[in-house]
Amino acid sequence: MNVTVVGSGDAFGSGGRFQTCIAVAIEDIPRVLVDCGATSLTALRRQQIDPNEIDTVVISHLHGDHFGGLPFLILDGQFRRRTRDLTIVGPAGTRARLTDAMEALYSGSSMVERRFDVHVLEHVDAEARRLGELTVTPFEVRHASGAPAYALRLEGPHGSMAYSGDTEWTDALLTASDDVGLFLCEGYSPAPIRWHLDLETLSRQRERFTCRDLVLTHLSPTALAAADLSDWKVAYDGLHLAV
Ligand SMILES: [Zn+2]
Ligand SMILES: [Zn+2]
Fold it and tell me: Are 211 and 202 in contact (CB under 8 A)?
């Protein structure tokens, strides 16, 4: 499995980083995105990934820096004559939130006839779903977004990864990342903060993780400037990892 961190930033562009977007390829061409923040279309172009090649977008939770790029991805496909269907898998309520976002940004855009279909599926906690060659399992975490929020576990034919999404500490992170090759984990702040993960808590829990590699993402300005950040591997936009 080849993983490209397309966007490693928080919601506010801290450190000049794009919002969350992770591209996953079983072989060469990324066909799956994990999260699609509002800046993701630009970030995909920066990584020379053709948005029309993406089959599936798996969404961790319904915040704009994690799903706000979907209207742009869909409209880009419409204007560039995409024919490949797009499957979106997200929390309960994703279909309505996507329609609302499309109508708020481009009135009438949710009703347009296109050459491709957009299928919206919903996560069921701890239930594995087969998506092509990948198996994706969501694990509910602790983050307020008007809908359930999930950590995601992705297993391919030759590798596996997990992604925390945004969350306070929960042991669900240990389950989601158990034995995976790569755990991309939020490292939002140096000290504990409501609804997010912090370096202090992660340090305390670090011994309990069984993943091969733990890489931090979604860092705030204070986390990016933290003195002990050198104790961690930190993602950046364009980081490629084979897992
Ligand atoms: Zn969030
Ligand atoms: Zn976020």
Answer: no
Q: How wide is the angle at C-alpha 58 spanned by C-alphas 71 and 217, nearest 5°?
A: 95
Q: Is 15 exposed, middle or buried (0-12, 13-18, 19+ CB in 10 A)?
A: middle
Instruction: Tell me how far the alpha carbon of residue 159 lies from the centroid of ligand 1, in angstroms.
Output: 27
By the 10 Å C-beta count (0-12 exposed, 13-18 middle, 19+ buried), 17 is classed as buried
From the CA of 168, which ligand is nearest?
Answer: 1
Ligand 1 centroid to 188 CA: how many Å?
11
Ligand 1 centre to CA of 115 (Å) is 32
CB 104 within 8 A of CB 111: no
- What CATH number was assigned to the domain covering residues 2-242? 3.60.15.10
Q: For residues 7 and 39, what is the distance between their CA atoms, to the nearest angstrom?
A: 8
- Residues with Cβ within 5 Å of ion ligand 2? 65, 166
Return the amino acid letter for 62.
L
Per-residue pLDDT of 63-104, as tens digits, reads 999 999 999 999 999 999 999 999 999 999 999 999 999 999
Task: Judge contact between 187 and 217, C-beta under 8 A.
Answer: yes
How far is the centre of ligand 2, averaged over its atoms, from the C-alpha of 188 (Å)?
Answer: 9
- pLDDT, one tens digit per residue, over 169-200 is 999 999 999 999 999 999 999 999 999 999 99
- State how far the Cα of 42 lies from the Cα of 50, in Å rounded to an integer: 11
- Rounded to the nearest angstrom, the distance between the alpha carbon of 88 and the centre of ligand 1 is 18
Q: What distance in angstroms lies between residue 115's CA and the mean position of ligand 2's atoms? A: 32
